[in-house]
Write a structure and sequence with these properties.
By secondary structure, the protein is mainly α. The chain has helices at about 30-35, 40-50, 70-80, 85-95, 100-119; strands spanning about 25-30, 55-60, 65. It has one domain (about 25-119).
Length: about 120
């Protein structure tokens, strides 16, 4: 029969610290990205398939993530005044977004909004 461990023999419990670092532009899961766009998850995946959402960043083989700034910029591009081709412009933006850094993406989004206002 084993005797209970004394306090000196008991393994030390480790406490996890709360996360203190919160990134400015976090990577979102599909569920979080759909909530950011105020869509159902199935609608979000349908928009991904159509190209209305920027392509995912895969942090591991079955773990797609999206940058919050890219999701918001694509949403802004779709929320522009509804003119013919506004969603085509959003799809073009989504195609070009992965090729650029975040500052260029935001500049591109502003140029697309300006082009839609002029055209």
């Amino acid at each position: 029969m084993r005797s209970p461990l004394s306090a000196a023999e008991a393994p030390a419990t480790t406490r996890r610290r709360a996360a203190t670092y919160i990134p400015d532009d976090p990577l979102l899961t599909a569920r979080e990205a759909a909530a950011e766009r105020r869509q159902a998850l199935s609608t979000f995946w349908r928009d991904v398939k159509r190209g209305l959402v920027p392509p995912a960043i895969y942090v591991s083989p079955r773990c797609p993530r999206w940058r919050r700034s890219e999701i918001r910029a694509a949403l802004e591009a779709c929320r522009a005044p509804q003119r013919q081709g506004s969603c085509v412009m959003a799809a073009l933006f989504c195609a070009l977004a992965p090729l650029s850094d975040p500052l260029v993406v935001l500049t591109l989004a502003a140029l697309l909004r300006l082009a839609e206002g002029i055209g």
